[in-house]
C-alpha cells in the first residue's frame, strides 16, 4: 500500500508519445458507453476498460477489480472533470500513480503530433502532423526559410509555433479539398501568416471568401524555386479533390487514397455521380504515376496504419498490390463498394462543410462539438 | 423537444453552470431523497449531461422521461424507480389490451381514456385525447370523470392503472377497464407536447 494518495495529470502529448513509443498504457475510460463506442484512445499496447463515472458514484470497487495491479492507470473522460473525480477516489482507495488525461478527449482530439517524413532537395524537409484523436493528417514543407502547410486543422497555433521555431515564413496554405470531417485552418493560417490560401475551384463554388485557385497542373514554389508542389486534379471524394506531388517523391493524396482504404464519394450527397470520378482517379490517373512515390494521405482510419515513429505513409506500388480499394475486378463492383454499406457520416459533416465555405461561423466551443468523434472519410472506416 | 412550458414535477434541481460530473452527482443525491415513482426535473447547461443522465438512469433502473431544451438550458425529466409492480390483493378483473383500446379509439366509440401517470410522463408521450390525472390526485379529482361512459385507465406498465381502477370502483364508477400492458408497449397514435 502506498502512502501517497496524490494524482497527477498527463497531457495528450505524453499519452501520444507513450503510445507511439510502444509503451504499455492502461486506460480507464469513464465516459458513457455510447461515447466510448463512438471513439476512444487506441494503440498497439493500449488496454482499456469503460466504466462510466456515474456508475462509480458510490465507490470504485467495480473499477478496482478491473485495474491491473502492476501498471499505472490513465483515467479518461470527455473534458477532464469526471476523470479527476474518479482518479481521486482510486487514489483514496489506495491505487498509486493514478493519472488523468488533461483536458480529456477534447484535448486528445485537438492534439497534433509532428513527425518528420524526410528531407527534400536543397535542405528542405517534409513533416507530417498527426491528429491522433481524429485521424487527420496535415503536412508542412520547409525550404529556404519558407513553409507551405497542406490540410491544416483549425488549431493553427501549432503550425505558427513550428514555423517560428524554424525561422520560416508560411507562404502558402493549401487544402486538397473542401473538408467535411474537420474544420479547416487553411484560410485562418494564411491570414495569420500573410500567406496565400489555395483551394480547388470546383470545391469552392459556394465559398464566401477570396482564395487562390488550385488548377490542375498548377505549380507552387516553396523557398524560391527550391521545392515545387505540383497539383494534380484527382476527383472522387469531392469533385475538386486535388493531389500534390512534392519534390517528385511524395504524393499527397488528400481523401482519395489512404493506406488501408480509399475515400468515400458520398459526403456531398453525390455518391453515384462521383463514384466514376473516383474510379478514374484511382485506376487511371494514379496508375500512370511512378510506383516509387510515397503516398501521404490526409487521414488514417485506425491506429494500425500508424507506422514507425507514428507516421502514416506507404509506397504507391505497395498500395496497388495490397489496398483493397485499388484491387476491385471491375468498375461495377467498385461502384457498389463505394456507394453501398458506407460507414456512418462524420459528426456534423454538413455544418462542417458550410463552415469551411465561410457560410457558418460557429463559436469555438461549438466547433469542438462539431468535430467530436472520428473522421470516417474512408469507405472502410468504422 | 423545445419550449418553455412548465411540467409539474416533485422536485426541481438546478445544476446550471455545473460541469461534469456534478450534474449527475447532485441528481443522485436529490434522487435519494425522493420517493419511488416521484419525478425530478434536472436543469443543466452541460451538453454532456443528456447522454450521461440517460445512461445513469438506465443503469439505476430509473425511468428517463425526456429532455426539453430552453436555449442553453436543458431540462431533463426522470422518474424514480418504483416497485409498484408488486401490489397486494387481487388484480382488477376487467382488463383491455392495448390493441383493444386502439380499436375502440379508432372506431370513434364514446369513452374516456384516463392516463394516471405523472404529468411529465404524460408530456413526453401520450395517446391523443387522454385525460391526465396522476394516481396521487385521483381520489380528489374523480368528479371530473363521467360516470355513464366506459373509462379505460392506462399507465406505463399496468400497475398504477390497476390501483386506479380499484379506487374508481370504490368511488362508484362501474364500467372501468385496466389497459394492459400500457404505454410502455403502446403502438398506436402518440403525441408529445411540453
From TrEMBL, chain A:
GO biological process: glutathione metabolic process; hydrogen sulfide metabolic process
Residue ranges of every copy of the Rhodanese domain listed in the record: 21-117
Gene3D superfamilies: Rhodanese-like domain, Ribonuclease Z/Hydroxyacylglutathione hydrolase-like
Keywords: Hydrolase
A GO term, aspect molecular function: hydrolase activity
Catalytic activity: 3',5'-cyclic CMP + H2O = CMP + H(+); 3',5'-cyclic UMP + H2O = UMP + H(+)
Function description: Counteracts the endogenous Pycsar antiviral defense system. Phosphodiesterase that enables metal-dependent hydrolysis of host cyclic nucleotide Pycsar defense signals such as cCMP and cUMP.
Protein name: Glyoxylase-like metal-dependent hydrolase (Beta-lactamase superfamily II)
Lineage summary: Bacteria, Bacillati, Bacillota, Bacilli, Bacillales
Automatic annotation (TrEMBL), chain B:
SMART domains: RHOD
InterPro entries: Rhodanese-like_dom, Rhodanese-like_dom_sf, TusA-like, TusA-like_sf
Assigned keywords, A-Z: Transferase
MF GO annotations: transferase activity
Keyword Transferase recorded: yes
Pfam families the UniProt entry points to: Rhodanese (PF00581), TusA (PF01206)
Top-level taxon of the source organism: Bacteria
Domain spans labelled Rhodanese: 107-192
PANTHER family in the cross-refs: SULFUR CARRIER PROTEIN YEDF-RELATED (PTHR33279)
Family to which this protein belongs: Belongs to the sulfur carrier protein TusA family.
Protein name as annotated: Rhodanese-related sulfurtransferase
